[in-house]
Amino acid sequence: AQHQRRIGEAHAGERLRAWWTATGAGVPTRPAPEAEVEALEHRYGVALPDEFRRFLLSGAPAEENHMDDMNGCWWPVDRIRNIPDETDAPVNDPRIAAAADKYIFFADCLVWAWAWAICCSNDGDRGRVAVISGSPDRIIADSFGEFVERYIAGDDGSLI
Prior knowledge:
alpha+beta
């Protein structure tokens, strides 16, 4: 089962880009250069989870401010920030707050009504996705692949 999960997750970025195309979202993408991804990892002292890293390298948003059908704005590599660099608002989930510097924001919704961050720590939360909204902040997906599947399925109620 673990092997099957990895295979499905490996293509999360491809499924997201196909959904953007099918819905006419007009999100321009480009493969992020390896050097940009490494610079992001170096800046925050993390190694990005494999499926998220693959998403960036195979075709991340090329620019900011393209809202898709779920009112999400996915960030280009140069916009990606960790929690402390992005917001001064307190994180109200103690588990997320303790590792805030290892959570990397990659998208927001409705011009930052809330945002999603992936955990890049090396503990049991690695790869999990959290919503940071203040009401309440919490982990909402066990992986980037799970998050993408629920996102493109329109499962917005469980993602906020």
